[in-house]
Amino acid sequence: MLHPMTLLRLTALLWGLLTLTGGAAWAQEPPHPVAAWRVVEINGVPNRPEAFALPDGDVVALRRLTPGRYTLERLGPDLRPRWSAPLSLPEPKGSGSLGDLLGAGVVSSESRVAASSSRALVRTNTAALIIAVEGGKVVAHRVELDSGAARSQTLAEAEDDRTALSFAAHGAHLAVMAEPPKGEGRFVYVFDEQLSLIFETRFVPSEDELGLWVTPQGGLVRAWVDEKDDSVRVSRLDVQAPELRLETGKHRAGVARVAFGPEGQVAMLLTLESSRGRPQAFLLAELDFVTGKPVYRSELPKELLLTGTGEGDLLSFELVELIYAPDGSLLAHGQFVQQVAMVSSSPTGFGGVTLTTDVQVRYGQVLLWSFVEDGRLRWVRAVPLNQTSDLSSAAVDTGYRLELSEADARVLYVHTPTRLEVLQGRQITRAVVAQPVALKDGAFGEREDWVALSRNETWLRVMSTRAGDDYFVMTLTRADTLQGLMGRVALGEEAPVSSPLTAPAEADRDSDDFQAGYLVGHKTGFTDVSGLAGVYGGGVGVAATGVGMTAAWALSGFNPGVCLMGAGAGCLVGAGVARSTLGAPRMSPWSAQSPDFQAGYAEGYQRGRRQRQVRWAAVGGVIGGVAVGAGLVSAEALLND
Predict the structure, then answer these.
(1) 202: exposed, middle or buried (C-beta count within 10 Å: 0-12, 13-18, 19+)?
(2) Distance of alpha carbon 449 from alpha carbon 31, whole angstroms
(3) List of E strands, 405-564
(4) What does the pLDDT look like over 586-603, one tens digit per residue?
(5) How far apart are the C-alpha atoms of 586 and 607, rounded to whole Å?
């Protein structure tokens, strides 16, 4: 006979386990309804932005079909192409630097000439421009936004194959730079959005060039280090204007970022580094090319990197962008990043060893700084982020995006739940999340979970874009297929009215619609509300384990075999109950989709839901076996006493 206190403890333990299992299973409803899905072919993962939104909410995306063969599409709200333009493009040859992996230098307001860039997608008022370095020439492909009509034009061609070519674009203007190998200087050509040459110029580069930027009006700003007097020189190449001088003291200038304001302001943020390349200070200045003097000059200590992070000595800081925010303030952002080479060895026989080097990229916290109009620091915030990936997949599921609205900045990234979040039932799967930060005071808003990711799915942030205030186009890929999945995630809409599904037997299983429906249904069934799966699976597993082990203990006393047999019985019984119940697919929330999509959704949802239920049943059985076994051991000890 069990002691009453022992029975009470066992009952409380079982109830706690059931509550924990059920609570975690119910967690993480789909945070936003998805108004449309579309299966697309994506052969290869880009590491630079290749999608943008138009003012009317449509999206333009560049997709790689096969090596050298691409298609540029304009997609409507239903993600169906309004037009599609086939293009032959060379494969991009980036430098693979940390700046490239982060998207530094190619963010939304990019205007820097970067020698590592070999291709870029740019939106103008009337066309999409794809600029690419093809062998010894720079070619621009212009595609009309209204009709999709495309034409190509060579912007610069090198007579010598050793000539270095690079380009930059800002709004309706782009610049091409050619650097001949004979030290003749650098030649720069500036074009408008019709690809007409506006002007050309030449300058002799210094030993340490910081960058060349295109202004929104088609001008050129150049910055370089003058080692004679420890300063940074800034000049205009398109007009006659005084040259500015910014003193850097004992530090040398590292990375420079430039922002252009709506009223013609030009601001520059410099990192001042030590001899080891570590940031020691930051210099912010607004430049006045009429007087030849800065409007203001604000030097900021390196402790800005350490505020709230604790990672200043562990990772390198990559300054990504400086921009004018909608409220008129200046906003800078960047991320701690570290590239680590992991060397492993394996024996080859006869005493030989093979060394293998794997390069990993570690992503740390994201920093945001806000400055008021006179350059004073208003606030600094650190968004926690901890990701690791190998170098070849560093553009997938890693890094972040910054989206600006009138009042907030949103940092988008993939969040992997911690063990504590899983135990507390707050989040049980990876998800694309957005962390709002108020522009006025830097206050954190409540984190928004936008799209849940199943185990086989990854987020392509460089092919995802926000289209107005209503929705965000999310591009996902699956590890077990070359297909991609584009979803229109509604940010402010109610879920559509459900409708019955069409029987799978009536569908064309090879159609794109069926495949899209299957992927969406499987994703929904696996990541959707799993409370009933937890109750039926985990609950039955725990209950069966408790009954079986208690009976065995009462008849034969406790031994390790009882715990093992009880856990196994709980897993089997719970899995059987989970698989035989709740297998019917949920009604599809996208009634406007085709019958093939509905049928694929039904099949995918059923499979994903059952996989989830069986998993919960197994977890419930194991937890029940361990917990009840521990309780019986305690009961045995109490009775023996």
Answers:
(1) exposed
(2) 6
(3) 408-415, 431-438, 448-452, 457-459, 465-467, 471-478, 483-490
(4) 556 555 567 788 788 888
(5) 12
